[in-house]
Amino acid sequence: MSKGALTRRAILEHAFSLASQAGLEGLSIGRLARELELSKSGLFAHFQSKEALQLQVIEYAAENFTRHVALPTLRTERGEPRVRAVLENWLRWPDQSGAQGGCFFVAASVELDDRPGAPRDRLVELQREWIDFLARVAHGAVSAGHFRGDMDPEQFAYALYGTMLVTHQYRRLLGDPGAEQRARAALETLIRDAVAAPAAHP
Amino acid sequence: MSKGALTRRAILEHAFSLASQAGLEGLSIGRLARELELSKSGLFAHFQSKEALQLQVIEYAAENFTRHVALPTLRTERGEPRVRAVLENWLRWPDQSGAQGGCFFVAASVELDDRPGAPRDRLVELQREWIDFLARVAHGAVSAGHFRGDMDPEQFAYALYGTMLVTHQYRRLLGDPGAEQRARAALETLIRDAVAAPAAHP
Q1: Which of B21, B110, B161 comes nearest A106 by C-beta?
Q2: At what angle do helices A153-172 and B153-172 cross, to 10 degrees?
Q3: What is the per-residue pLDDT across A79-114, written as a single tens digit (0 to 9) for each?
């Protein structure tokens, strides 16, 4: 990496961590320059505007998530093992991401849902990609013969996403040490439902 | 209601709606005074500090939620009907609450999870009360003989809460018109799991 690329990387790492706590609107170029001991003009050379900075922080977050959650999941056996792996890798993300606050994507979603613009558009695109990924993992369990053929992978993705959102809430806001076990139990309910023949549940 | 009480009520209604969009930190006494055409000193007479205002907005939100979601739920038949009613009443809350943004509690949770203080403490207390309410509704379905005796009401509350969090995400961020149907389908999965004898799911 060139010195410029290293500096850019360091800025994004710090900005990502800050945004997980103070939100994307909390990312001022002045604050970043101060905390990283860089000149404001140096920061402007990397990010021409606050929106450009926000967009690149979103990309950084997406790459971080892909590296720590999506890729390790794809390296596991397709089917039910991969369904379990996605939850485990996702649960570990807060510790691995380098963020000091809660989940970057949860914070960004609440912040941007009312605010049209390029950052919101990109966030929506990334969320849809992730939901598609989850649905494909569930569909893979159908192909592997682990889930019944008429289960709904999109519904599974929705429910798994909900499990992670409430786990975030129990962990971050309520400080519940049992949140991860609840997440695993919730996944078992979803798996049982995806495995069982519908006739077994009148 | 006295004139003072009416004014106070109008301030809280407006502040609650604003906070659902701009967050509790977005609630400045100056902004509220301007938008409500009141004097800043008049506002200070009602709320001595920003924190006092935030705390009273949290109380307002809780009363609003109780009126529109919890109380109508308690007026339905105990057991499975009440479990379904809690979801339906909760799904309707955004339209009934008068908030212009997303869910007040989702926004406040993300905002306050990193910020110790009286508003966070009160929010945590309210969230725990709501989770207890959900668990009692599930337990009521056990008492009514609708759910099996060894189902876990706390786990049910957790999963139902997750369903609502992801529904909020699909509605607000993704603009998905099918979010409510997904929420209902997710609840049916939870109910099937709570009804079925564990032996039926090896």
Answers
A1: B110
A2: 110
A3: 999 999 999 999 999 989 988 888 999 999 999 998
How distant is the Cα of B103 from the closest Cα of chain A, in angstroms? 9
> Model's pTM, two decimal places?
0.94
- CA-CA distances (angstroms) from residue B8 to B2, B25, B36, B43, B47? 10, 19, 11, 8, 9
Domain A54-200's class?
mainly alpha
The CA distance from A134 to the nearest CA of chain B, in Å, is 14
Contact A182 B155 (CB under 8 A): yes
Give the position of tokens 């960004």: A108
**Rounded-to-integer distance, Cα B34 and Cα B40, Å:** 8
**Spatial distance between the Cα atoms of A104 and A94, rounded to a whole number of angstroms:** 9
ipTM over 0.85: yes
Using DSSP's 3-state secondary structure scheme, residue B130 falls into: helix
- Ranges A111-115, A198-202, B105-109, B163-167, most confident: B163-167
Between positions 36 and 65 of B, the ones with CB within 8 A of A are none
CA atoms within 13 A on the CB side of A119: 24
Closest CA to B198 of A192, A185, A143: A192
**Cα–Cα distance, B39 to B23 (Å, whole number):** 22
Q: What is the pLDDT of residue B200?
A: 47
According to CATH, the topology of domain B50-200 is: Tetracycline Repressor; domain 2 (1.10.357)
The residues spanned by each domain of chain B are 50-200
| Residues with Cβ within 8 Å of residue B24, at least 6 apart in sequence | B54, B57, B58, B107, B108, B111, B112, B119
